[in-house]
Amino acid sequence: MPAIRLLTPRLANQIAAGEVVERPASVVKELVENALDAGARRVDIEVEQGGVKLIRVRDDGDGIDEADLPLALSRHATSKIENLDDLEAVASLGFRGEALASISSVSRLALTSRTERQEAASRVEVEGRDMDASISPAAHPVGTTVEVRDLFFNTPARRKFLRTEKTEFNHVEECVRRQALSRFDTGFTLRHNQRVIQSLRPAENPLDRERRIGALCGQQFIDNTVVIDAEATGLKLWGWVALPTFSRSQADLQYFFVNGRVIRDRLVAHAVRQAYRDVLYNNRHPAFVLYLEVDPANVDVNVHPTKHEVRFRDGRLVHDFIFRTLHKALADVRPDDHLRGAVAQSHGRESAGIPGGYGTQASMPGVSNQPAPDPFAASTGQQPAGFSGSPRPPQHEWQARDQMAFYQSLNEGGGVENGGVGERAAMAETGELAVASPTPPRESGDEPPLGYAIAQLHGIYILAQSRQGMIVVDMHAAHERITYERMKRALDAQDLKSQPLLVPVSLAVSQKEAALAETHGEELLQLGLRVERIGPETLAVRQMPALLRGADAEQLVRDVLSDLIENGESDRVEAVTHELLGTMACHGSVRANRQLTIPEMNTLLRDMEATERSGQCNHGRPTWTVVTLSELDKLFLRGR
């Protein structure tokens, strides 16, 4: 073995640069974070050739004293922490004091800065060869400008791993997007090869924040989101989560911030995925921009060189808080929330009257202020029988009456198919199909979100009319979600019952898994699983949930233990149970080609409006869609 020797400062900085500086985007991240820590309200980023030739970051922050400039480029030199207590509760984005030293070791770096106390600015320059800093006077306003030229000029092996100019700039743009999402009170400008790519003013109010989100994540995203704002047990979660109908093929629109720091954490990802489990289609990913505020002492940000990962002191508390908040928010989404997104995309947020409920008739292009004609009136223009000159019964009365008749017909199989079809077919020939079953007339301002049914298409779809336009409902998918949610509530009301196995199932596991099962015996019992350790590497399953008596006990227990190892908890039993309930709901729902009356169709629409997550069936497929009046006008070139 050779003798032990100290590394030279240059070599030590280049080794550190291997952790901090992966590509030009890494440099931009570190410099922008330094600017934000300095209290900047304006940050300008300029890059050339994807950042390889030049990266210039200018801010209007506090600046650096002339005496501190050489020290700013030294390793482990920082003004952000001073003792161990500061390290245990880091409130700044940077704190290690390695960024500038690492960047200067693999580039030609120049830093110009001025504080309010100084009459003139100072400039320090350093190159990667000798690391000697030279200071000279300069002209500069209060703030700091850092120029990084010829990145990796002295480490060719690192430079050859860089991608094309377009790819590297895409990474830079994504980095700036994350920083702009993290600080709404700061303005950002991004230029590439002297061309302005992004110019964002400070967003001081909710409307400006939504505009910034729309500019960075797309207007469709902000038009299809649910606003989150929850606080409990020292945690605060706020931001925007997309409706399940606005899902992505990949996880490219997911931003999560902890105390202003963008992170990618497995615990957070699992909580979000669990919240969306019942409403996302296969292999689709949710979209969200979320902000978690927590006491800095309860989160460790010093677990990864790039600070992309964090460790929470009470991970389970954070996981449950995120899951329950998002789960409740998605469950509370009703059809009118979906309609707001659809109308906003069609007309624009202002013309659609968003936020504050869906737009009135006066705000909708091509719609007059007169009450909409009753779609259930006969062709002669008269009111439906039973409603002419008589007051309308209270809404809850006719809803309850129609709902009782609807589900009685579904359960008994009578009425709808036995004779009802022939009778309505005869009435259709005389134009009286719509008035066969009385339906309450609509009044201006008293219209349900999904409107009122007017017909059934091909025995599969319900066609409804509302102020927004035309609504098409997949009756099987809609009824499937309604049935599924009712079965879940019924199961929750009576708890998860379990039954002993006639022959216990023995399975071989690792010692770690066996010890875990022994430690979490009470938690497994709450899931309906009674698992005993009968050997160093052997478990016996003696009890299973009654609802899952036909499931593979061995595989279920292995999956539960795997979840416990990875996440500290498991929802595997609940997931399998809900999957079974979903299958039962699918088979128990109204099938295609089932002829429904107008009141039955309206009952289904009203149930959808009152049911959680009714926008998707339990397989994640959409249950309804809307074609707005403006879209219909475009189809027929009206108003042109």
From TrEMBL:
<comment type="function">
    <text>This protein is involved in the repair of mismatches in DNA. It is required for dam-dependent methyl-directed DNA mismatch repair. May act as a 'molecular matchmaker', a protein that promotes the formation of a stable complex between two or more DNA-binding proteins in an ATP-dependent manner without itself being part of a final effector complex.</text>
</comment>
<keyword id="KW-0255">Endonuclease</keyword>
<dbReference type="InterPro" id="IPR014762">
    <property type="entry name" value="DNA_mismatch_repair_CS"/>
</dbReference>
<dbReference type="Pfam" id="PF01119">
    <property type="entry name" value="DNA_mis_repair"/>
</dbReference>
<keyword id="KW-0234">DNA repair</keyword>
<feature type="domain" description="MutL C-terminal dimerisation">
    <location>
        <begin position="453"/>
        <end position="596"/>
    </location>
</feature>
<keyword id="KW-0378">Hydrolase</keyword>
<dbReference type="GO" id="GO:0004519">
    <property type="term" value="F:endonuclease activity"/>
</dbReference>
<dbReference type="InterPro" id="IPR038973">
    <property type="entry name" value="MutL/Mlh/Pms-like"/>
</dbReference>
<dbReference type="InterPro" id="IPR013507">
    <property type="entry name" value="DNA_mismatch_S5_2-like"/>
</dbReference>
<dbReference type="InterPro" id="IPR002099">
    <property type="entry name" value="MutL/Mlh/PMS"/>
</dbReference>
<dbReference type="InterPro" id="IPR037198">
    <property type="entry name" value="MutL_C_sf"/>
</dbReference>
<comment type="similarity">
    <text>Belongs to the DNA mismatch repair MutL/HexB family.</text>
</comment>
<keyword id="KW-0540">Nuclease</keyword>
<keyword id="KW-0227">DNA damage</keyword>
<feature type="region of interest" description="Disordered">
    <location>
        <begin position="344"/>
        <end position="398"/>
    </location>
</feature>
<dbReference type="InterPro" id="IPR020568">
    <property type="entry name" value="Ribosomal_Su5_D2-typ_SF"/>
</dbReference>
<dbReference type="InterPro" id="IPR020667">
    <property type="entry name" value="DNA_mismatch_repair_MutL"/>
</dbReference>
<feature type="domain" description="DNA mismatch repair protein S5">
    <location>
        <begin position="213"/>
        <end position="331"/>
    </location>
</feature>
<dbReference type="InterPro" id="IPR014790">
    <property type="entry name" value="MutL_C"/>
</dbReference>
<dbReference type="InterPro" id="IPR014721">
    <property type="entry name" value="Ribsml_uS5_D2-typ_fold_subgr"/>
</dbReference>
<dbReference type="Pfam" id="PF13589">
    <property type="entry name" value="HATPase_c_3"/>
</dbReference>
<protein>
    <recommendedName>
        <fullName>DNA mismatch repair protein MutL</fullName>
    </recommendedName>
</protein>
<dbReference type="InterPro" id="IPR042121">
    <property type="entry name" value="MutL_C_regsub"/>
</dbReference>
<feature type="compositionally biased region" description="Polar residues">
    <location>
        <begin position="360"/>
        <end position="371"/>
    </location>
</feature>
<dbReference type="InterPro" id="IPR036890">
    <property type="entry name" value="HATPase_C_sf"/>
</dbReference>
<dbReference type="InterPro" id="IPR042120">
    <property type="entry name" value="MutL_C_dimsub"/>
</dbReference>
<dbReference type="Pfam" id="PF08676">
    <property type="entry name" value="MutL_C"/>
</dbReference>
